Structures are given as structure tokens and as C-alpha cells.
Description:
By secondary structure, the protein is α/β, with parallel strands linked by helices. It is 30% helix and 21% strand.
Amino acid sequence: xxxxxxxxxxxxxxxxxxxxxDGVGVHAVRALAEKPPSGAQLMEVxxxxxxxxxxxxxxxxxxxxxxxxxxxxxxxxxRFELSxxxxxxxxPSLHELDLAAALGLLPPDRRPHTVVLGVQPAAVxxxxxxxxxxxxxxxxxxxxxxxxxxxxxxTCSEG
Length: 159
């Protein structure tokens, strides 16, 4: 069970800003910081998932934003719920220690409900900035984040 005092909904931006579209989660959290979703804590995680494990453990729900290879067209926004017990059901992360593996380090009763909003990358190669397809998807991603935060807050209040 998440610890008291933790964020109800923790929105984490994952990715590497030096690998083009892989940084989409970080870009999204930075854009959300201009007008944060009500009731959500934003956290720029980058590739340091282990460094964020304490905040993740304290949250009631986690909404992760990341580049995800889901086999879709570049810029497609995908949603899935993440369970460390069902890792094969999630599209693969582009990071060595992905969020599912990090959640698996927590005791089962300390794992928050976790949803991933991913964007299919067009370019994961050295470079700064998003490809045109992923940059064009950013407004759709931000809208999806706001809807998801609202849904997760409602779910946390009911549970």
C-alpha cells in the first residue's frame, strides 16, 4: 500500500534527451510544468528510474510518459497498464532498466497502479530535439495525460 503523504498521481517523464525521440517523456513533463494537471505531481526522471523509486513507491498511481516501440506509426500515442508480473504484455522500453523492472523491486503491496502513455518514436539516435512526427504528437500526448490524471485521481479516491 502506498505511504501516506505521497502524491496521489505521480507523472514521470522518462527518456534520454540526447537520443532524439527517446526524450519525449521529459519534453512532455516540461511542457506540463507550464500548467500542471490538478492533483498531480510532475517528476522529470530521464533514465534514472531507480533514483525515482522512493517517489514511485509513495504514489497511489503513476503515469509514465515515454517513447515506446509498439510497432505503430511514428507519433502514435499508445496507452497500457503496467504490471511487473506481466512484463511481456507491455511493449519494450528503450531503457536498460525499465519501469516494469523497477516496480518489480518493490514489495507487491507497495507497487502503485501504473499506466504508461507512450509515443512511437521515429528516430532514436544521437541528437537533440524531437522528430517532426513526435513533435506533432506532443499536444495529443498532453491532452491524454490530462484525461488520464483525472481518471486516476477518481480511481484513487474511490479505492
